[in-house]
Amino acid sequence: MIARLGGAALDTALAWRRRGLERLWRRAADVQERTLLKAVAAARNTEFGLAHEFDGVRSIDDYRARVPLCDYLDLKRWLDSAAAGAAGVTWPGRAPYWVKTSGTTAGDKAIPVTEAAFRSHRRGGWDALLMAAERVGGAALLGGPLLFLGGSTALAPAPGGALVGDLSGVVVHRLPPGLRGRYSPGEPIASIADWPTRLAAVAELVQRQDLRLLSGMPSWMLVLFERIARERQAVGRPLRDLGQLWPHLRVFVHGGVSFAPYRAVFEAWMGRALEYVEVYPASEGFVGVQTERAGGLTLMLDYGIFYEFVPVEDLATPRPRRHTVAEVEIGRAYAVVLTTPGGLWSYVLGDTVRFTATDPPRLVVTGRTRHYVNAFGENVIVEEVERALLAACRATAAEVAEFSVAPRFPSAGESRGGHDWLVEFRVPPRDRGAFAARLDAELIALNTDYRTKRRGDVGMLAPRLVEIAHGGFHRWLASRGRLGDQHKVPRVTNTRALADELLGVATVAEAAVRV
Q1: What does the pLDDT average to over 235-251?
Q2: I want to staple 133 with a disulfide (CB 3.0 to 4.6 A). Which of 138, 234, 351, 511 is the partner?
Q3: Given a cut of 80, is residue 445 above it in pLDDT?
Q4: CB under 8 Å to 215, separation ≥6 — which residues?
Q5: From residue 115, how far is each of 189, 208, 249, 252, 289 by CA, in Å?
């Protein structure tokens, strides 16, 4: 009865939301300008607003003339003051929550979550749930527990009466009553700070639950699957696949990393295809939700966030072009810039995106502004690396658990460099040489600069596959104190630091293979 009533309520809310989205998309430019001016008016008398003359802002151009692009380090002195308990620094009052995040462009960061920012994050989660209900039906979705494999829900006290922790912990801390009873693994388990201990408790619990939805980062969800399989094998109750364990599970909400390299592995574990809803949540703001089965992530315009998009090539220039959602071009690489109700102003998020449509605005995440490999003028980005990996896996029946690409610099014995692909396989390729050759061929086809450097082996040698033994990437994360579902392995780096650290703590399963 509860599932039917709740499902009917979800279906009704979905119909209402769909109509609202259509209205938003028809007036995207107007909605975004009003969003910015509302945020400026709210923060006019803050320290940041006074310093940047917000009282004179009447348009987007006025705002841009006063507020330059910022990264975390540019805002750090303001945020440090607010985190110490000062009120009215970049947003009125004090933020009740602070989120700790392991930033990949500025080290560890503390991001404020004001009440307005919390409402923004909650709307993103709500929209994701509505899209999941649209895929499988509201009653079916609410017929059993919904597993959210997130960070610890434990929150620690901070100055000024605030609480600090993981973003997922903040969200769970304030789940509405209607979802709290469906939330798995529940707060007692989710509050366990130690990730391996929490994972073990989740694995033990969900084997007894009739799960209807999974949500989390794909790589960490696969770790959970492997643990469940080992436990059942150990007690003589092996499963053909996890579809037997969760026969009513039909949808996976995912984000954080590209799902493409994991999809085949995921469906092999489940024994069937699921419905998928991709989300684009960041600690700084909830950006997008996959509102259609195909076509990328829809940019969500009514979360109180004002978006700017800067051509990637402009980031290092004195006067970068700053485009609104109404001015972007399909297919071009942009850096995402956010002005949020959390008191972040023209904040360079660190992600790069490419729009696939403008009416409505849809995009795909292509990488990070500082995640690329360009040691030899090859300019290879994350999107190209992921596409090459997917092609190599398909060609050789391989399945990948984790990977990262780093430059291999010239040495006394070899004057040319190349790329090292550090890969942890779940299922090794049939032919490792063919796997490495396919990586090379795909990048040659995708990237003109790489193709030029690889021609005749003059500028770069072929890529080298370095196979990491099972669990190696997790040991590396643990060695850095970053073991857990909120942390990601950088897919590409422009130095040897990560690769050398990884090889220092992980076991190499196979000798390096080069084309």
Answers
A1: 92
A2: 138
A3: yes
A4: 128, 146, 147, 148, 149, 150, 252, 253, 254
A5: 26, 36, 33, 28, 21
